[in-house]
Amino acid sequence: MDLCKDRLVSGGRDCQVKVWDIDTGKCLKTFRHKDPILATRINDTYIVSSCERGVVKVWHIVMAQLVK
How many domains does the chain have? Predict the structure, then answer.
């Protein structure tokens, strides 16, 4: 998990990376890997996530798109 302002990002064995609003507790966005998530980081613009297969993905939060 990682925190930036009022947003929290989490990743789990379900292969999903989720962005949460910490004020409301609602899930705002979900991104997917093919394997369980090992690590996540978030800033104002991007989420970086990695999975058990060694794949690292960079997501643009607002556009909800895979950047790299």
Answer: 1
